[in-house]
Structures are given as structure tokens and as C-alpha cells.
Records
---
Amino acid sequence: MDFGAQMKKLRTSRGLTQGQVAQKLNVSRQTISSWENNRNLPDLEMVVLIARIFNISLDNLILGDPTMTNKLVKDGSEMKRAKWNLYFSLSMIFAGIISFLLFRLIGSTVDSNGYLQEPFFLVPIGYLFLLVGLIDGVIYLVQRFKRN
């Protein structure tokens, strides 16, 4: 049985209207209608709430519909990718800050021949790390808000 039909069956068997279910889930009645008509599918958090409200297991709610199962697997992999993306952005920004701190800590000296000795390469590397981290973070945020 597909998710929409199962959702409608659960709702009607308990004598609830779409509006009442929507109120319990803090969504609009139109959202419930779009789920029941298979125009959209809920995310995993909402599926858990639906299972709690109707007092059924997630297995019974999800595994009957391959479309729902595939959507939840896809959502899970997107979440994992988003987490790694966030870790990458933060590590790049942290590496940039470390580069600047190292430049300041090492400092500069003048050797006996009068040549300036300093780790100048740390400055552009620091800017590169910061730039990569910020760009990656902005791309992540844009993609995330586009999906919602």
C-alpha cells in the first residue's frame, strides 16, 4: 500500500479529519491532503510524528511503500553529505585561522646577512583556507534553503 493510501486509511479509521491531523502535526490541512494524494511525501521527522500519533511502528508506516522508503534513504544520505560539508567548511576556516596565528607566533627575524626571515607563505595559505571554507559554507546554505 502506498503511503498516501495508508495515511488516509489510518486517519479515517480513527475518525479524524485532515484538519485534526494537521493540527496535531503542526502542518496545514493542504499538506495532509498532498500526502494522501501522493503529491508530496513527509520527511523522516514528520514520519516519526505520524507513527506516534497513530500509534503504529515505523516499519508498518514506511516499508509498505517503496517510494517512501527511497525518499527516506535519499534524505538520510543528503543529511550525511550535509554534515560532512559542514565539517569541511569549519575545518577550512579553522585551518585559515591557525595559519594566521602561526604567522604571528613565528614572527620575523633579520639574519646576520641582513635578510628578512619570515613565514610569508602562511598569509596567502590562511586566506585560501578561509576563502574555501566560506565559499563552501555559502554554497551549502544556498542549497539547503533551496530545498526547503
Note: The chain has a mean pLDDT of 86.
---
Amino acid sequence: MAEAWLIVGLGNPGPRYELTRHNVGQMVIDELARRRGETLRAHKANARVAETWLRPGGPKLILAKPNTFMNVSGGPVAGLAKFYGVDPERVVIVHDELDIPFDTIKLKSGGGHGGHNGVRDVAKALDSAEFARVRVGIGRPDGRQDPADWVLDPFGAAERKNLPILLGDAADAVEQLVADGLLAAQQTHHAPRA
């Protein structure tokens, strides 16, 4: 049997944050679960989890959303990685990215956290930065709005119209990363849109 992949969407818990830009990673997990007819359930690692498959026969996917706030996501991620026996190289973190325009997906593996506190905490808890990241662009605010406030705001009306496409693209990127590897997924999702 193929080894499992741990796919984690970062965000903040509770209805107050559910539809905010900071929770786009968790929205992608919901899309991946929806595609498979799965429901996330409580797990002892302080997360909600669905065990499923990329396609019938494998590889196995563990879809997860930590119950903690973004900046302390590492504990649940490390707990799930240990519980399922998943090495950091088979962990995929899906998160919002201020430095990428809305409607854009970028993938990378390893490297720094780029100022993203959730990614920083995951790297610290896993004692490794060698995990893949699916970075979902939310763009930066116009004018003087503090980026810390921007990420905690809901998507605007124009963004909400395109959000299902963005979530679908990000879910496609996760699936291709697992199926075909990072380079193939980058070549597909970093290409300019036709």
C-alpha cells in the first residue's frame, strides 16, 4: 500500500473566521473532502480529519484542519504526522499568501516561512521545513489597511464570485502534487492562464 499523505489546511477556528481570507487553506480542505463525499471528524490531535484516497487504490490522503488558531498550528500537525507515521516530506500545508495576487496558486517545498506565522509554527513543531506548501494567493490590501486586519476580513464581493474557481484550482494543485510530484504541479499551476 502506498504511504499516506497528510494534507493540512491552516486557518482559525470558529464561525467568526470561517469565511475570512486567512481560512482559505481550510476551505481547500473542505473542497477536497467534498469531492470525495467525506466529512471531517474530531481527532485526538486537536484537529478535524477525514481519511480518504486520492483515487480508488491510493494513495491515502489524511485531510486535516487544526482546531487551534493559525499561529499555533504546529502542535496538531506534528501530532497527526506522528499518529499516522507521515514524514515531513509527505506533509502538504495549504495556506493563504499575502505576497501572491488573489486567484493565483504557487507551490514550493522547503525554504523559509516568508513571515507566515502558521507555516513558521508547523516547521518548528515538525523540526523540519521540508514539507510542501500550496500557497493560495489572497493579495495585499490597497491603501493603508493593516495586512493583519486584511487577512481576518471576509473575501470581498468580487473575490467571492471567483472563490469557487480558486478553491478548485488549489484542490487540483494538491491532487497533482500527490499524484505527479511537485515539479509537474508547479509546471501546471505556475503557468500563465490562457
Note: The helical segments are 24-35, 74-84, 117-126, 147-151, 157-180, 182-189.
